[in-house]
């Protein structure tokens, strides 16, 4: 299918950005401004259906943030709202009204996003909808609401794209450089995605604003972007629309983190799976995508194109129209001799070649890119690859006491299908024999794919931590409980559900006897450690645990949640 170009005003804007970027780098863009103007369009392609790349890319330059305040649009199966006074709360949806009819897109009760959020100015507009600034009424937090018009979801594929986007954003929730989804709502006419607000603008805007640009700066930017891709791939997600416009800065602060956004074309993938639909933005599409036979290596190609642009100010494959662009991509002939390439270091050129290798099997993986000498040259920035996501979560789970593990198991049971779809795929990828359980050997092989190898002793300890029933195997429920990201604990209704489970007599307190009973039910009781578990949570030493103490225990040591929430509160729009 042909790729629709952006309107002339967008082309002129992008041309201006590229020319400025090239000038700042002190480089002569020998290919001319015409190439930059063509790249400005960043046309999008999708096979046999209207592309959502333009709608999700141009739109939503800003996106959304999560805080500890309970959201009306949470996606748990049965939300329980906590009473401010600590008393019992009713069970049901986030509203006291009976649930509405099921929405055709998200497949759950329809609700009014304006009940929890007030809408502000328009932030961006795309083919499928519009993004507005919004404010969470209860907390005053500034967020972004991406509204997708249901009438524009013309095909079944369009509907599935939106549904999958929500699932993937839930799956990636908690990753520091990925825009977080606060809630998803559906009403009669629209789907609303409330997301973290990124008020710092696009990546290129920051480059231009700095007034100078070096290879070291390019390496630092690339490192962050590749770390994001590495995390996505480790979690079984392929982005499929990587381009500079989809990386935003959280705020205007000098040290604001870079955030990946727009997962509208992203998919879950399994190792060895071959994808065939053509999606993405023309200048960044890998040759194997055009051949309709590709895997996660296509994301690395797209990042390689970004690196080329960072260094040269123009895309590596360009033409006056999309067919010409695609022809150039399929030829794969890199120009590393024209200006400014004679002045670019050999290390940078080596990395560009290896990321833009025409054969995806010969192309570097994200893990290998992070270990390339050029990207590690900046000693002031972190240059070590991210550990495997599952490994990090298992380690965190292992360090918890039995009380916290039992509570997390209750919370895991509250999560909706869309929140744990990614974990289900991860479990399937590790469970190679499809037995429904993970053996020690399968765990070892699964964790070794994307990170450092572990000793047999370390593996055994992680296995024992996740294996609640002690049968030497990790079943699906045990896996979800051990690997669900701890940011889910920030949801008040999930915490309160767990508290109610332990508070057997509804007194508002968890006693030693109630805790013992609950831990026995969960198969986590250890008589020798029960006193330690109580003292860990009982901050006022009255021999029992109230709701505030329970929440404090659950959030203690949870991946810098307090610091993250503080940063989000500091976001101010000018």
TrEMBL record:
Gene Ontology biological process terms from the UniProt entry: intracellular signal transduction
SUPFAM superfamilies hit by this protein: EF-hand (SSF47473), Protein kinase-like (PK-like) (SSF56112)
Pfam families named in the record: EF-hand_7 (PF13499), Pkinase (PF00069)
Region described as Disordered: spans on this chain: 35-106
Record-linked PROSITE patterns: EF_HAND_1, EF_HAND_2, PROTEIN_KINASE_ATP, PROTEIN_KINASE_DOM, PROTEIN_KINASE_ST
Group of enzyme by EC: transferase
GO CC, alphabetical: cytoplasm; nucleus
Superkingdom field: Eukaryota
Keywords, alphabetical: ATP-binding, Calcium, Kinase, Metal-binding, Nucleotide-binding, Repeat, Serine/threonine-protein kinase, Transferase
Record-annotated Protein kinase domain positions: 117-375
GO molecular function per UniProt: ATP binding; calcium ion binding; calcium-dependent protein serine/threonine kinase activity; calcium/calmodulin-dependent protein kinase activity; calmodulin binding
Enzyme Commission number(s) from the entry: 2.7.11.1
Biased composition (Low complexity): 35-55, 62-72, 81-97
Positions of ATP binding: 150
Domain EF-hand: 418-453, 454-489, 490-525, 528-560
SMART domains in the cross-refs: EFh (SM00054), S_TKc (SM00220)
Catalytic activity from the UniProt record: L-threonyl-[protein] + ATP = O-phospho-L-threonyl-[protein] + ADP + H(+); L-seryl-[protein] + ATP = O-phospho-L-seryl-[protein] + ADP + H(+)
Family, similarity comment: Belongs to the protein kinase superfamily. Ser/Thr protein kinase family. CDPK subfamily.
Protein name according to UniProt: non-specific serine/threonine protein kinase
